[in-house]
Amino acid sequence: MDNIVSRKDIFGGKPIIKGTRISVDLIGDYLNSGKSIEDIKRDYPDLSDKEIKSALDYIIKKTRSERTKLEPQVC
């Protein structure tokens, strides 16, 4: 996930794809609204597959982290 960075001067520190002003949230919002990775690539043709995958990996990692905080562990 070295393609994901956070800088206070860009979107108040929200994670973005390095070298762009495209936030990880934007990628998540696309998928959440039912759009596909192909839709993202069509609308943002400069994004590479690796960058999109990094954003998705970041979302999954954060979601797991938040879910772990909220849900009790079942043994």
* Mean pLDDT over all positions: 88
Helical percent range?
A: 40-55%
Order of helices and strands: EEHHH
Physical arrangement of strands within the biggest beta sheet = 1-2
Would you write up a description of this structure?
With 75 residues, the protein is mostly helical. It contains three helices and two strands, in the order ββααα. It has a two-stranded antiparallel sheet with strand order 1-2. A hairpin with an 8-residue loop joins strand 1 (4-6) and strand 2. Helix 1 (24-32) packs across helix 3 (49-70). The radius of gyration is 14 Å and the shape is globular. It starts with a strand and ends in a 5-residue tail after the last helix.
